[in-house]
Fold this protein.
Amino acid sequence: LAGKSTFITKLVAHFEGMGRDVLLFREPGGSKFGETMRPLLKGWDLTDFARALGFNAVRAQNVEQIITPALAAGRVVIADRYFDSTDVYQVEMGGMNAAMRQAVASVHAAMRQPDLTIFLLPSVELVTARSIERRSGETDVFEAVPAADVVAYRAVATRARETGRPAVYIENDEGTQDRLLELFLAATSANASMAA
């Protein structure tokens, strides 16, 4: 969503400035398998259920091949998207039936859970404006309906908040990326394990 990539860059710089070794990877991607699957998963010719299963296959490989070893080595791991993204695009916005939704939820529950999830919460107006600024040529499946993106994203964030998952929720319509980083640090200051 709006401002995510720039915020992640700031976050990586913050941890590196603390002397931490940071591993940043994107979804779908990260591993050789993930990068091979990326163009297929970004295409338009998959059902929502098939796409969700594909993302989770990549995710499972990343957990075993990238995330777990990096954490064991003491690195900070930052994932540009994780299973909440699948919940937004394929579950919340998709056409799955109840059984399919439950199957995806079960896979997510079996996945390694993040120590902290950061939800940047922009308005429909901000995302629409950013989408128009960025758009050139053909729009891929992740940028097709920005207004619906925001509604679905906020619904997933609300559910995460209700479950009490470790997460930070930042309204990012106002201020610079430096200000967003300040808000993140303020939100995590009560729990040193989140910010360090």
